[in-house]
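Propose amino acids for all 402 sites.
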């Protein structure tokens, strides 16, 4: 898929051309929906369908994507007895009405129809949150340090964001094809993901471990904050993600990193002890329900339970890589209590050598435990917390020496 901000469909063409393109977009969206399932995420199916469909223009591709995401965002509002194509058309009409007249939708109806009934069992559900995830997402960029002002003048329809180096893109251009992207002048990165980097606040010359690095979005940000000095170990269980990370670091001219496969086992990818360890752990993704609309209907309570157990294990293991006086940061793009505050509480009980510590960053966010809500930041919902390792040894460390 191309990287563009979702817009209403307003091509420069005749009514007949618009009708033909709209009908084609509906068919593409319906095909994607019929292919999607618990093991086949809609965004992956969409990429595959757009890639194999010949002769698509940008406007039709963009509308097809909007229709797929609108379908799942408004699934509980459409007629279940209608054919998929009919529900697609209805969903995009509801989305347009919500964009224009959000106050015509009651809080009670939004909560009842827009999310699974079990959601309130695992997290606080408010009308403000539901309204935020029913809005179409903002496309966030992160510029090279202190070059955002220049990008707002060279990249059309780009506005400064609320934190350093953040930008909002409101244009329709495919960003991946721009000269600025190819030159590594910016990354496409959600605002709350950028906040995590600022909360880590790594210093030039330090040594960090991005334990579940994925394709490297946070690794690149840590490197920028470290001025490409020091060292970052980036690990992930999927080799293809690390290969993608290497492509991104080459374009961004990031050199202060190493990669290593790590599947979360007790064997750490390196014997190095770190000034900082970032564990951006696998999670249920409840915080991404605005952008990843399909996930709200495929995620289960069992998923949350299993992931919280995995998060406990990963956190216990990653903590072994922190040097005395170093910091451990835990972040997840979910708001489920079982994956956030309860994971933090259990770790604190089992590891008295780690003390919760408030963040010291230029963002002036309070607390050691932070919930970043979509209605506050116009991005994904996230939970972030940190500990500092003191001089007191853990039982595991003591046993290892004995």
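Proposal:
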């Amino acid at each position: 898929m191309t990287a563009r901000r979702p817009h209403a469909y307003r091509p420069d063409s005749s009514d007949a051309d618009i009708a033909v393109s709209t009908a084609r977009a509906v068919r593409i969206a319906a095909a994607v929906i019929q292919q999607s399932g618990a093991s086949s995420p809609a965004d992956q199916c969409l990429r595959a369908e757009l890639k194999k469909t010949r002769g698509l223009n940008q406007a039709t591709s963009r509308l097809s994507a909007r229709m797929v995401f609108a379908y799942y965002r408004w699934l509980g509002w459409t007629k279940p007895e209608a054919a998929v194509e009919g529900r697609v058309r209805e969903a995009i009409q509801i989305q347009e009405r919500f964009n224009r007249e959000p106050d015509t939708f009651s809080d009670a109806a939004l909560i009842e129809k827009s999310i699974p009934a079990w959601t309130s069992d695992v997290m606080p559900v408010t009308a403000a949150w539901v309204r935020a995830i029913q809005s179409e997402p903002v496309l966030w960029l992160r510029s090279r340090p202190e070059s955002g002002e220049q990008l707002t003048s060279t990249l059309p329809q780009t506005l400064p964001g609320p934190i350093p180096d953040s930008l909002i893109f409101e244009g329709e251009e495919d960003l991946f094809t721009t000269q600025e992207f190819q030159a590594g002048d910016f990354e496409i990165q959600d605002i709350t993901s950028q906040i995590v980097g600022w909360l880590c606040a790594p210093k030039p010359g330090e040594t960090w471990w991005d334990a579940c690095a994925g394709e490297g979005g946070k690794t690149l940000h840590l490197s920028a904050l470290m001025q490409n000095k020091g060292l970052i170990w980036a690990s992930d269980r999927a080799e293809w993600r690390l290969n993608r990370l290497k492509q991104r670091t080459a374009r961004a001219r990031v050199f202060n990193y190493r990669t290593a496969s790590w599947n979360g086992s007790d064997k750490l990818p390196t014997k190095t002890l770190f000034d900082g360890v970032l564990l951006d752990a696998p999670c249920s993704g409840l915080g991404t329900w605005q952008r990843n609309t399909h996930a709200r209907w495929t995620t289960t309570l069992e998923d949350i339970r299993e992931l919280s157990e995995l998060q406990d294990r990963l956190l216990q293991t990653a903590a072994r890589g922190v040097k005395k006086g170093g910091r451990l940061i835990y972040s997840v793009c979910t708001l489920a209590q079982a994956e956030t505050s309860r994971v933090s509480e259990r770790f604190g009980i089992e590891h008295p050598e780690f003390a919760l510590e408030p963040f010291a960053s230029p963002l002036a966010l309070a607390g050691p435990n932070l919930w970043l809500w979509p209605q506050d930041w116009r991005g994904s919902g996230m939970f972030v917390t940190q500990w500092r390792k003191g001089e007191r040894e853990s039982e595991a460390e003591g046993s290892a020496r004995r």
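The first helix runs from residue 15 to 35. Residues 15-104 form one domain.
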